[in-house]
Amino acid sequence: MLTEFGAHFTDIALWGTKVQGPRSVVATGGKFRNNEDEIPDTQQVIYEYDNLILQYSVLHHSSFGPNGDPGAARNGSCGTQFHGTKGTLFVDRAGYRLPPQYVRLRESRPSQVRPDVWYQDERFFGFYYTTETRPEYGDSSIQHQAHFRNFFDCVKSRKDPNSNVESGYYTNTVCRLGDIAYRLGRRIRWDNATEQVFDDPEANKLVVGTYRSPWIPKGL
Fold first, then answer.
1. How many domains does the chain have?
2. At how many degrees (to 10) do helices 6-17 and 165-184 cross?
3. What pTM value is reported for the model?
4. pLDDT (tens digit, 9 = 90+) per residue, 107-143?
5. Residue 204 in 3-state DSSP?
């Protein structure tokens, strides 16, 4: 699910954040639902970049996201979330949701703290929460048609499509690094310039992969 279906979500995350290869990757997971398969049905992968953290979650047993969010579609929380300081954008193939970040304020009235009550919550201190903007929602299913139309137009014009080979390469790189970190059971550090894992020959063997003759790329 990480290197197959996960490519669709990772591609959106990389497109939205304008990043490529991560600095480091750590992954954990297991087969808690179906022990007959090799692929984990529950998995968490953390990618570290210079200015953001990318998390990918696999939850075969649940239609809710890692934070309990049911998502925007009937098949559950199956999409990409961008967490910012002013709001969170959830995007999937059914549309998007953009709830703003809550801001905590304090009323000017005197505090109503009761020292004899141990279960006080923030309401006793005069705190309340509000937002600076209203939430936004959108539902649409025209993404597929626009995506196909762009590809067909570029076949005729010979221009690069919106999702070109290079973007697909970086998506595949990120997904495979998560799989490698999971299989090795340790954190790996990635050099995006040389396309090698730092100081880890075993990981680099998995980066290159195994090829059978005569389908061996030159230089291997």
1. 1
2. 120
3. 0.82
4. 765 555 566 655 556 555 667 778 888 888 888 767 7
5. helix
**pLDDT exceeds cutoff 90 at 69:** no
Per-residue DSSP letters for 134-181? --EEEE---HHHHHHHHHHHHHHH-PPPSS-HHHHHHHHHHHHHHHHH
The DSSP code sequence of 76-138 is: BS-SEEEE-SSBEEEEETTEEEEPBPPEEEE-SSPP---TT-TT--GGGGTEEEE-SS--EEE
Question: Is 204 contained in some domain?
Answer: yes
Residue 46 lies in a domain: yes
Task: Tell me the residue range of the domain where 193 lies.
Answer: 6-64+77-82+161-208
Establish if 92 belongs to a structural domain: no
Structure letter (DSSP) for residue 217 = -
- For 134-153, give one letter per residue: b (16+ CB within 10 A) or e: eeeeeeeeeeeeeeeeeeee
Instruction: Write the pLDDT tens digit of every residue in 164-213.
Output: 999 999 999 999 999 999 999 999 999 999 999 999 999 999 998 889 99
